[in-house]
Amino acid sequence: MASDDLRPAVVVVDGSADAAPPTADVVAVRVSPGADGAVPGPDALALGQQLGVDIPAYLQREKARGEAGEITAMPVLPAAPKGPKTVLLVGVGDASARSLRKAGAAVVRRARDARTVATTVAVDADALAFRAFVEAVLLASYSYSLKTSSKPSPLRKVTVVYAGDADAVDRATATARAVRLARDLINTPSMEKTPAWLAERAVRYGERAGLDVVVRDEQALAAEGFGGILGVGGGSSRPPRFIEMSYRPRGARGHVVLVGKGITFDSGGLSLKTSDGMVTMKTDMAGGAAVIATMTALGELGVKTRVTGLIPAAENMPSGSATRPGDVLTHYGGRTVEVLNTDAEGRLVLADGLAYAAKNLRPDVMVDLATLTGAASLGLGRVHGALFSTDESLADHLLTAAETAGEQLWRMPLVEDYRDALDSDIADLQNIGNPHKHYSGGAISAALFLREFTGGMPWAHLDIAGPARSDKDEGEITKGGTGYGVRLLLRWLEQAAPV
Q1: Which of 193, 226, 268, 323 is most buried, judged by most C-beta within 10 A?
Q2: Any catalytic annotation for residue 437?
Q3: 273: annotated active-site residue
Q4: Contact 411, 376 (CB under 8 A)
Q5: Per-residue pLDDT, 79
Q6: Spans of the chain below 50 pLDDT
């Protein structure tokens, strides 16, 4: 089977663990760690016999170790015109999902200049590990470029030999397609990516996936009292939107609401960022992109839970109509917030989304995703997302899903002693912690602020400011928007009722 809109297309063929792969420009076979170096698998030995090459001797000469993702390339003499041009001896480590994810990414990166690849690297993996391998192949091959001189990779087809249930490749393809959609949305420059543009993309892809999509424009937002979204978007000539995507499968078990921050560009508003600080701010809607992309894959993956995706979208710009430090916004539901820093805008739009969900949708659980605070990445680095939650079961399920999906997530505390730093003298809350309280922990204060709008429902907040964007290609991650959060949300929704 093959996806008709992903390149390269992944084709799965039945095969056995002791057979050489089919012919292709590049053939990849597995090797494992041994006491004295890399040990070839039966597929590698079969290929060596076919080509007349002593692969164990070659591995020993190259000092291969068989570690996950290690590639030992072996050029093939042109004496066999119908054979492969290159053989890749691919380390699989312990053959776990984590190791095969590394191996899959390494194969496709090394073979990017070929047209076809055939591999037996994951031939006898379990379903989870095989899915990880295929996802890595499809994600590591992603690219985004607007250069007039850029040329797409010639890689068109990856034939994967597998002895197990090929349903795993369908799930991997659906997941990878969603992640790649999120990356496309994130990487689009903000001169094109207005809140209206993001809403139009949500409608296009949502309706294609069989979802109901409702978009509120600035008039509807004003009429219904979405003061946070309007306040953040008031400084831009390109008005805000509130996107609601609904997935209602027959016999749905429970209801989950996902809320994604959709700031299509963040200048900081009147609390202006530095020039360097703005460079990556086209990616400040990564949480919203993750929610849109996740919603589009639910039907294909057979998720049984009702899911609603909410994306408050706005552009945070400075102008004569922008929110000023010291202004007070009235959020959906009536709670007032004194804005002391207009660059703490993500929590203002999310507050409207969470309050709307709590009042009107009454879900079993709510999860929000946002590139919310630099403090989260200072504490955890650029790989881990920060997880805050009011519900132990929900937190455990999300951590397990993240581990399975290959996205790193770390539980952080909701420190009650920090809550009084959000008290305002003139409003119900202020949008940043009072520095005179001598508290640090900006990510914790932001999470505590959001909690105020959840109506006491089970809730989790994912601060993805670190892992939502990458400065380099590494593993299955590509430079730019990473689509972080899509894989872990889909694993969670596939595997569990909303608990």
Answers
A1: 226
A2: no
A3: yes
A4: no
A5: 52
A6: 1-4
